[in-house]
Amino acid sequence: MTDLLRSALPSELDPNLLEVVKRPWIVEQVKAGLKExxxxxxxxxxxxxxxxxxxxxxxxxxxxxxxxxxHGVIRHEALLLRAGARSPEDLTLMVAGLLAGDRLxxxxxxxxxxxxxxxxxxxxxxxxxxxxxxxxxxAAAFAASINTRPPIDIRVNTLKTTRAELKATLLTEGVETxxxxxxxxxxxxxxxxxxxxxxxxxAGLFEVQDRSSQAFCQSLSISKGVRxxxxxxxxxxxxxxxxxxxxxxxxxxxxxxxxxxxxxxxxRAGASIxxxxxxxxxxxxxDAPCSGSGRxxxxxxxxxxxxxxxxxxxxxxxxxxxxxxxxxxxxxxYATCSLLLEENAHxxxxxxxxxxxxxxxxxxxxxxxxxxxxxxxx
Length: 378
Prior knowledge:
alpha/beta; Alpha-Beta Plaits; Rossmann fold; seven-stranded mixed β-sheet; four-stranded antiparallel β-sheet
């Protein structure tokens, strides 16, 4: 019988953590890290990264230990509370046990829905949706997949190099990579590497981008010179990927700082991307703001405050507004990094028909969770 309650327990174990957390200083550092993460849950991942960089008291040996414990608490907090944790010290000591191999065998199951919500540390309604959609066995596999350390994927910039050439170039810099079998632009980094400091990165030969986004860009029918309007471009990962395929991309976003970053990335990549007011195009892309529920393995703090409905109205407004920018016979592409039906089940705008849709699941596709839909203007 599948044990949903323990389905998300860590598989990468470190028995030494039980000795490490006997040091009060380590416990205090974990408490400080958790306090920083809780200060602004929506920005916990970048804030934590900044906190670790600026925390000079953490040496190279202690930093990964404290990081593992902080992120372990974030991932497993509901389970730890159910097992009796009542303070930050309890959470720290008990998560060290989990990461060292404690399976909490004495903790009894309650019901599949409640056990699954506890395992994932997400609201019950969200856990129940995934449980109903996936079934018990797939749900357990999903839980395991989003509680393991995600791989680092990079996208080969085909404007400047090939995948084989980049693989060889990175190896000379001590970075080993593995070719993805179906996403032709993707390389997975083996182990850890300071990618931004490599000569290959500085030369614009690659960008860090999860294989889910790369698979999405690869799936779109792009002919050389076709105009693409990227309405929610952000820092431009997808804009750059589509430009590398030969599209003439116009990028817009309400966040000016993100567009500034896109401009810098485009210069490094040797990509020509217009940042200007939107005008009708044959392909209009709406990579909509969403819950980020497909990125829980990469951004565990998204669990705090995770909801399905807070951005649904905004998404609907973006779809309606973008429909008017699609040229006759063109396509509207809607995408999210969400695995929640409410965010991905919007109706096609009037005058559009569904062409295709795809959902990527971490436990099936070994990527972040991702959804996209292609709609053609009739």
